[in-house]
Amino acid sequence: MKTVPQSVNTSLLDSLTSIVGSKYATVDEGAMASYAWNSGVGSMPGPKFVSTWPVAVVWPRTTEEVASIVKFCAVSNLKFAAHSTGTGAVYLSRDAKTVVLDLSRMDDLQIDPMSQTAIIQPGITAGRLQAEAMKHGLTCHVVGAGPSHSPLASATSFHGIGITGASTGNNSRNMLGIEWVSPEGDIVRIGTTGEHWFSEEGPGPGYRGMVRGFLGALSGLGVFTRIGYKLFPWGGPQRVETTGRHPQIGMKPTSTMRFFCPVWDDYEGMSAGLYRFNAFGAAFGVFRMPPNHAGWMLSRNSAEYARQSVAGTLPDIAKLENRFGWQVLTIGHSDRQAEYHEEAIRKIVRETGGRFLDVSKNDAEMLIYNLVTSVYIGRVFRGMGSGGTSFGIAESAGLLPGVFRAGEKIVETDRQPGGAIISDGKEGFWTWSTESRILWAENILASEANTSRGITAMLRGFLMHFYMVSQNPSLGMMGFLAGPLTNLFGRHYSNVDDWMRKIKRTVDPRNTAVESNYVSPNKPVFSTVWRYSEKILFSPVGRPLFNAVTKFLGKKGVQKHD
């Protein structure tokens, strides 16, 4: 493992402390170890510690301090990378000579109940914002990363998709205004960030699309320090009343809440049900997790899940034969509206050939709590040795059958008993409706932790997915096109990498913002090489070579403990 030099760069530290104060800048190796750690989203298949550590970490409090740090980096031949709450802090310092900006001290929050908006900074978590918004009869969108994520980060810089998207939209469009520090250190304000008028962007070009695109720039185009943010009506209680005991916490439903677990006999029925739910448009959340993941969440620990699985006593929602289903939560603003919601949901399920599973009171309360807050992340992933993802599809609900069957095919060999991927399910799709029209489907690959075999299996599934989508556009739009993958597969999406480069070179001419998770300013040679080699690697003839390459990379990804 490589670390920063032992000698303290006094000049660098002095320059940074002159901006933020002596308490809020460090070059200490012990502190910087946390920022060399790969903590989450997209972590597969690399090592947990990156080989290049940051040269310093700073904790700014104001936008002006952020701008001063960025300007200092620009004139000092340094790079910068920013993160907010730390959820999904991925390879922050992968580039050499990087200063990491931890924005957790920037935690101002304002709510305007009349306009159903909030003004938030990067350090505000979704859980905190949601709790405050509920006091005003409002709620916010919580992405799949859970309540510890930053809504500002998901709205400006990464996927903004969460399981209540049927009613709370997509964070990339919930952003109403931007305060942005460009890679040159300029402070740019666009749209509404607290003024007494309303506009998403104001006059001129569409900056939201430029600075984030579909996936987000992941700190590759500057630092976002404040946004105007859309909130949504909440028909539930002002304060959530929890039930159960840790770790099996549930939520006591109100009289206007209705929870359903409908299932069908195949993917076609499941897709038809989702289409009708979207047309109905009254669901607070429509969510699907694989049966084994539901079992991991509802059991007290992994040993209990294993015992129930062997004994055949898992709840119905956790049984493989019930995998063609959804969790649906409706919340009325009156008892009569709640009754209407229930009548409509039952009619839709009946007319599409579905049926309802019986769910115990305790399990239902846990599932409701998870739907409302997205807090399930930690509970579900404790059942995995290691986790990666593939098939980030944001497309029409009609593509669901093909996407799911392709996902099954990708892991079919590795999920067999004795394989490297968990074998108690056919796939790992977490799926939900967003904006009452779009299907999000993400295939979680759960494998052995920190072994060559496990990392190889995840990498193989990940690359196979990209190739399948690039060769078969009917599977939908790929939702994880970021970093080096943009260079490899961008040509399949209207040469999006070339357009991203034009933006990168325009707003960041000195390449000061770390580009590792976004796009390189110049097209790398390996992207051209890949264009021809992928035809060989993914062919039947080239399969032995593909397996050898992924096995080699799998060995390289194992974290060694000294």
Number of distinct helices: 20
Task: List how many beta strands DSSP finds.
Answer: 21
- Spatial gap, N to C terminus: 9 Å
Estimated radius of gyration:
23 Å
Instruction: Identify low-pLDDT runs.
Output: 1-8, 42-46
CATH architecture heading of the largest domain: 2-Layer Sandwich
Secondary-structure class:
alpha+beta
Q: What is the helix fraction of residues, given as a range?
A: 25-40%
CATH class of the largest domain: Alpha Beta
How can the largest sheet be summarized? Answer: 6 strands, antiparallel
Structural features, described:
InterPro entries: FAD-bd_PCMH (IPR016166), FAD-bd_PCMH-like_sf (IPR036318), FAD-bd_PCMH_sub1 (IPR016167), FAD-bd_PCMH_sub2 (IPR016169), Oxid_FAD_bind_N (IPR006094). It comes from Pseudomonas hefeiensis. Keywords: FAD, Flavoprotein. Belongs to the FAD-binding oxidoreductase/transferase type 4 family. This protein is α+β, with helices and mostly antiparallel strands. The chain folds into 3 domains: 109-233, 2-Layer Sandwich (Uridine Diphospho-n-acetylenolpyruvylglucosamine Reductase, domain 3), CATH 3.30.465; 242-380, Alpha-Beta Plaits; 384-480 and 524-557, no CATH class. Helix content is 36%, strand content 18%. The protein contains 20 helices and 21 strands. The strands form 6 sheets. It has a 6-stranded antiparallel β-sheet with strand order 14-17-16-20-21-19, with helices on both faces. Strand 5 and strand 6 (117-120) form a beta hairpin. The longest helix is centred in the last third of the chain and has 20 residues, at 452-471. Residues 1-8 and 42-46 have low confidence and may be disordered.
